[in-house]
Amino acid sequence: MTVPAREVRAAAELLRVLARAADEHRPAPWSPGAAGSVISNRDGGCDYVTGYTIPDGPEVARYISVMDPAVAGALARLLDDLADGDDEGEINPRALALARVINDRSTGTPSGLEGKPAA
Fold first, then answer.
1. Model confidence over 15-56: pLDDT tens digits?
2. Which long-range contacts (CB under 8 A, 24 or more apart) does 18-23 make?
3. Which partner from 4, 24, 53, 109 sits 20 to 30 angstroms from 43, CA to CA?
4. How many whole angstroms separate alpha carbon 78 and alpha carbon 18?
């Protein structure tokens, strides 16, 4: 396995581990609540994901809600698939860049993308 493939698979595994842990504590699906909060509402229950309201308001709460454990699981599966590379064994450079951002964020290493939203 190439180094880029290991990086992509490591990011996929990290997403799976974090998603399982988040889902155990605050089950998905998540949704925006009142005043910028994020709630977990599986099986008709309601529990706060963040434990506090987000002062920046509903836009941040909606973003967090969209990125719940189910999304992390889907991203992990996609990264696993992309780690195999194309027919020539080449790994998509965007998949590698995504993996590096995920891996860097988990270690606190700057990825060079601070303050830059996705284009």
1. 999 999 888 888 888 887 776 677 776 665 566 666 556 666
2. 18/72, 19/69, 19/70, 19/72, 19/73, 19/76, 20/69, 22/68, 22/69, 22/72, 23/69
3. 53
4. 16
For the purposes of burial, counting CB atoms within 10 Å of the CB of 33, is it exposed (0-12), middle (13-18) or buried (19 or more)? buried
Decide: residue 59, CB within 10 A, 0-12 exposed, 13-18 middle, 19+ buried: exposed
Q: pTM of the prediction?
A: 0.76
Does the pLDDT of residue 8 top 90, yes or no?
Answer: yes
Instruction: Output 1 or 82, whichever has higher pLDDT.
Output: 82
